[in-house]
Fold each of these.
Amino acid sequence: MAISSLSLLMLASCKKTDAVITTNGGTAGQLSVSATTLPLDKAKLTDTTTVVKFNITNANYGYAAATTNTLQLDLPGDNWVNPLSITLGVKALSQGYSTIDFNALMLKLGFPTGVATQINARIAYSVGTSVKTIYSNVVNLTVTSFNLTSYVYVPGAYQGWNPATADSLVSITGNGIYTGYINFTAGNLNFKITPAKVFTNSYGATGSTLIYNGGSDIPAPAAGLTQITVDLNAKTIAFAAVTHTYSIIGDATPGGWNADTDLKFDNGTLTWTATLPLTAASGQAFKFKADHAWTLSYGNPATVDGINLAKNGGNISSTVAGTFKVSLNVANGEPATATYTMVKK
């Protein structure tokens, strides 16, 4: 009897401490925003006033879950394939942004500045890898961002040491990191970096370390098209060989499928560009091609101009005739996707 009583006490103890917590899968909360039309004003660059505020309600998992709430922003055509994600603070139910902070997020999304552009916002709720992430309602915003682009210049032997006509390196977001492509010629590898198109102030280097108004001429590693990255925050310079050059080809282009129209790298926009006439007869199309060969190309899918060109994808249908500035945005190397834009002239 004594043993039986002890067993019952042990069983009762186990029942008190071994409660099982289960989730109902979760019901997402709601997202609201203080303003849905945001013409961001560059004149308020240093103003810390909140221009937009995202407010959320908690998700319901049927118990007090430790939920991670993440604000996601994306362009409508991307279908949340690769959203910009901002993890909110613990138990945070709102997130506000000043002009400069929200403009920086818009620049990361990569859409054109100075143009009213629609974006989507939602909240992703997560309680761990074992439970499926759930999402709030989607809020549509129309945002006009502004450009923070800044430049430095690369006068050197390749162009006669003339700062007035030197090629530039660009920082799209004005964060102090500049990049671009320079075509160095044999025997003309030395150059300097200047903040303006004059030699009043310049950067030389010792090894990979930049020296303001000091150091020696900077030597490029070899002749040919070279990617240069200058970090004025860390005072460093780095080089990378440009893997590919690009052209456009197709029966909608002047050369048909037998002759490429070369694209030129634009250090101002970091894109490969050309202005050319395109035709749009039934079935006519084009593609972007690397190195005048078919080993690497970029084509469909392209739901709208500038969205998700696929590596070695299909032909891109030409639907409107006219003269266009075509710009291909593709990272150095062989990325799986690229984007392009067409602006009618």
Amino acid sequence: MTVVRFWGMDQFAMMCAKMLLNKFDCFIVIEGNRGLGKSTLAYHLLTRVGRIMKRIAKETGGKDSLYKDYYSFKPYPQSKGKLKGNTKNILYQRDEVINFFDRWNASALADEGINVSFNRDFWNEDQKNLIKLINMNRDHCNLFIMCIPQFQVLDNQIKNLCKIRVTIARRGMAVIQTPNRTIYNKDKWDTANNERIEREWLKKGSGLPKYSKLNTFRGMMRFPALTKRDESIYTTIKVNERNTIKKDLGVGGEEKKEKELSEIAVERLKEGKIRNANILDGMAIANGSTPDSFKNIIRGKLKKEGIDHRLPQYYWEKQGKGKGKEGESGEMFG
């Protein structure tokens, strides 16, 4: 009977931190179907690595520590405020990813969801520049996590640059793989052999994948959903970036005026698509206002329409709709 190693999230994050402290970059690819939690896992890992570096900074001189600003992960709505341009941690656009690799000792998440939907040439256009930068700047010791639907669609050179491959098998469960150390074999992931192994277990029709038989398998890892606070922040970032990309691509026409976030919030409330007050709090941050003032604006708009302005009655969580709607709430991001 094969004993499968289960990694703790803190243990995995420490492994990444040690790699970075040893003057190596850490390029992780997380793959999986939409809605299984790729971005959720990436968010957890980046947060944990940031905490580890912060702890090391305290232990090595506090404010004077070399590590005090290393790998700081600040996933706040970035269209407003201080976090702009080359300091962003969550990336959706091609130029942001390319610019990231000029940074030093930084961390970032490239969330593919928006780009696959609206900009399908994200990883093809300027691909040579991207590969060149990753290779040239490996001594910059950056932590970069890329979320994609399927590892096999990547360019072979990018596959070989990947240090850790994480496959989301189901919500809350990940398969960890690393490349084999080869001298002559160009395919470090031994794709052909692993495909054969996978076909064998599929032929048996047991429905139970035997990941441990893959020769790149290194273990499994469980991960939880995000907290409500982190969930609301991430949802807001995703909405903002989607709107930005739509605008860049000219989707919807130039004559169409972009709606204010408060108007969008009112629409979503009436449609029953706002889970709870935390989502509105995240939208308030994105809008550059406080949660209380943002909610007052929404109440005013509801009053103007002549309908009930009590916000809790619109939350689907309060209406007993909290089960089975993870996709709408954004509890587990794909």
Amino acid sequence: MRPSVLILVLGVVTSSFGLSGCRTDQGHYTILSTRNVELSRVDLKYTPVVRDVSKTDSRLWFLFIPLGHAPTLDTAVDRCLGSGDGDFLTNAQVKSFWWTILVFSYESYSVEADVVQTPREATREIQPSPSAPPSPSPPPRTTH
């Protein structure tokens, strides 16, 4: 066999068995957050926005041994919020990605979005509405 044909066959076999990957668009979201935000108190015209923030959560594998924690969408969103010092994301694009090269593998979630910084009073804990006060009991009856 000629050397060029052998290299071509070896390259096809190696890429078929040793190299693979996939990138998936998980979705586009108008608003995305892992925090409680009362949106009725937010006016998007007057709140600061940090544009085009991108963060990932990932893990590397060696053979069949994971090196680190499993990546989660929650962690990627939290990192994005922390990077922009905000409370929720707008125009968020979420993607997942993985690849394998022989004995190494990689997997990740990535989030790219605009981070909205809300006023602090919009993120305070939302308290349940107070229940109605108990009705007064009727006065005791007296018998004569």
Amino acid sequence: MTTQQLQAAPASFPGSMPEYLVYVTLIQLGKQPDADFTFQSSLMGGRLERGGAVIDFLFSNPPDLAIAVQGVYFHYGMGSEAQARDQIVREQLAGQGITLIFIDEDDIMERPRYYVEEALQYRDHSRMVN
């Protein structure tokens, strides 16, 4: 399924279109929801606790990987404070032995399979590392 074939995530999907593309691509690559990864995992109290976070994709296979989709508006358009929060979450996860890979929304919309495969190999092409 290409991004051209998809106009929007199904109404039943609790996330954004870019998150849905990652979700579908993970399944196409043989990853099983709730067995290999969970979607929208609350860590450290989630959004309700100071310092908490919601991680888009947290893996149990491999057990040391997480993926976050970086929306243009909410992660880059909201200024340096939003980016600093994302870096803090990355550092918190690193302290737990988890590598957080960011995938930019515009990249996932263009080439979902490539960027998901890269993330599964712990390669981050996002603006957060540049």
